Amino acid sequence: MTNQETAFHRRRKFISSLMTILTAACAVFAIVVLLIIISYIAVRGVSSLSLQFLIDTPKPVGEGGGIGNAILGSVMMTGMACIVGLPVGIGAGVYLAELGNNLFGKVVRFLADTLIGIPSIIVGIFVYTLVVLPMGRQSGLAGGVALAIIMIPIVARTTEEMIRLVPNAMREGALALGAPQWRVTWNIVLPAASTGIATGAMLAIARITGETAPLLFTALNSRFYNYYMDLPMASLTVQIFNYATGPFDVEHKMAWAATLILVGSILAINIFVRYLTRRKY
Amino acid sequence: MDNKITVSNLDFFYGKAQALYDISIKIPEREVIAFIGPSGCGKSTFLRTLNRMNDTIPDTHAKGEVIIDGENIYAGGTDVVALRRKVGMVFQKSNPFPKSIFENVAYGIRINGIHKDKADMEVRVEKALRDAALWEEVKDRLSTSAFGLSGGQQQRLCIARALAVQPEVILMDEPASALDPIATQKIEELVVELKKDYTIVIVTHNMQQAARVSDRTAFFMLGKLVEFNPTKKMFTNPDEKLTEDYITGRFG
Amino acid sequence: MEHRIIDQKLDLLRDKLLLLGGATENALHRAMRALTERDSELAQKVLAEDEIIDQMEVEIDRFSIEILALQQPAAHDLRFVISVAKITPILERIADHAGSIADAALVLNDSPQIKELVDLPLMANTAAEMLRRALDAFTAEDAAVSREVIKQDQKINEAYRRVFDELLKMMVDDSTITNSAAHLLFVGKHLERIGDYVKDICELNVYLTEAAFIKHSGEK
Which chains touch A (3 or more CB pairs under 8 A)? Predict the structure, then answer.
């Protein structure tokens, strides 16, 4: 190599290494920020964590108290949202992907995308008018409905995208064997898209688990364990809000602990769903 | 020998664009028929009209008749699902399902309700894999993923899958074009073996392959059927100059 | 790598050639017997069956072209098909010469025998043995034997010279036997030609086995 060629070569090597270092640094930065947030929450919250904390209901300041009912309430309302929202959302997604290449499909897609962008507090107000007023009181049911409404368009759109990603060749292979369309979708397309659909569902669940505004008007809050959906229900997010905005330091500590629980459960959901839908084939 | 498929004056349209012009052809039973022609000549389109796979493409329609075993498959009220069971298809790029080898073959049997019980299913799966010359290579790993097989094996798996539903006609759309020469040879030998029991129509852009395996050859160009003759005649003394030019490589 | 599509066809082609070879050997044997045993009926049979041999030649030609057109043979397979296609007309010509010998026998059997036949049967037996060995060497793809057989032709040529000289002298001495002597000369010529044809077959055998053209190369 001539002198000039060596110079070019060295410059190229230098730029290559520089870019590698820069992009690696960005990745590290992203992870580090995440780790800092999680450890900050952990450090702040762990001191107030105890089994008692997880079981007790809120009590007047100084007497301890916990987030037991809030956890149960969140679980119940999220669960209800899933029971309603997942089938409807996935079903809508399947329709849009397999059959929705028409005007109706275009309209539905547009509305779903719009819905995703609507501030969740408006969903809360909407459900207040639709459910709370006729019922005469706030309830866990209304809270679940609000969460479901937020969930459905997210699940529908991600499901549709994931199903569209399934290669057409697979569909044709099944059709050529004499499978009717519904079987192709049910036996072949859905299982192939399952990881993607689960990821979409998980994103939706993570989103609604962290929602506070829609629950404020619909489920309100409660200081007691509530097993019935037709009464006001506590939720982790609203409770964190209450603790965090309270005047007492003890309450703030409990807010951190509750946040830790919230973040931890979202992480756990992530891991669990990844395990369930691990690619065997 | 009876004619398995009789096509009369078939036109085919993608939207407003016409892709096939007045195709008429009689395909006898239990022979291998090859469709050859330059790219875009309509041979794959025509193949897919034989099991109405073109229905999956929006805005297509056909005029004319395709009669299989005495019934026009384009008549209103045709059971397309049953048609596709009788007329199977193997595609250019092998497309096994993301399931185990066993389940890939079993799928067609299952959805058509052919088997009696679990033991019967296993017998049928084994037979299909044997008929596709794949059994010896996979018999010890039936529950592993189909994607673990090589390209040639995957294609034979797709053939086994098609055979499992007991078709009468097998359509093959360039089945070996994505395979290496050894795998291609295995597929060709399989085709020659299968014609004892099935009518086979194979689209190929490889003329020599058509010469090697088929009994009759149809040459298409620009959506028209130029010549249809026994392969021996086609490759030693074709009727049409156009055919001779194509076969000798003067164009295409 | 057995059981290729082409293998069945190559085996069939080989069988057809060997059948033709057998028929040709048969024609030669019987034609000579028709001459030495003065059996005109046998001579007629040889002439009638020549038609069958012609048909076999046409059939092998057609089949070889079919294999070349449809199966694209390569390397040894290609040399095999080409060799068969070239050996076939040689065999047919040998059979034609056998027919001519039968023709001569028909004429000669109508006249008294003019001499003891010694050299001509020798030539015929040598030629027949050469043909047999050449066809065996083709099947076995034995180039060494093929080269040996080529050398055997020497004997035929020497015997022909003897017959030629003898018959010529006889014709000079006695003009009444000229017709018969001439026909015997022709028989000798036919047998000499057959010997040369078998040499050609052996050269093709060597081509098949070694991919070497020894024809016209002086290697004889």
Answer: B
Reported as half-sphere exposure (CB side, CA atoms, 13 A), residue B1 has a value of: 11
Q: What does the pLDDT look like over C14-60, one tens digit per residue?
A: 999 999 999 999 999 999 999 999 999 999 999 999 999 999 999 99
**Gap between the Cα atoms of A97 and A161, Å rounded:** 7
Kindly identify which residue of chain B lies nearest to residue A191, measuring between CA atoms: B98
The helix/strand/coil state of B95 is coil
**How does DSSP classify residue B134?**
-
Q: What is the pTM of this model?
A: 0.80
Structure tokens at B188: 């060709």
Q: Are B42 and B223 in contact (CB under 8 A)?
A: yes
Structure tokens at A137: 């009181």
CB atoms under 10 Å from CB of A83, counted, come to 12
Q: What is the ipTM of this complex?
A: 0.91
| Interval A108-151: pLDDT, tens | 999 999 999 999 999 999 999 998 888 888 888 899 999 999 99
A vs B: CB pairs below 8 A: 69
Q: What is the spatial distance between Cα C64 and Cα C76, in angstroms, rounded to a whole number? A: 14
**Least Cα separation, residue B16 to chain C (angstroms):** 39
Nearest Cα neighbor of B69 from B167, B137, B178 is B167
Residue whose tokens read 């070879």: C21
Q: Which amino acid is it at B175?
A: P
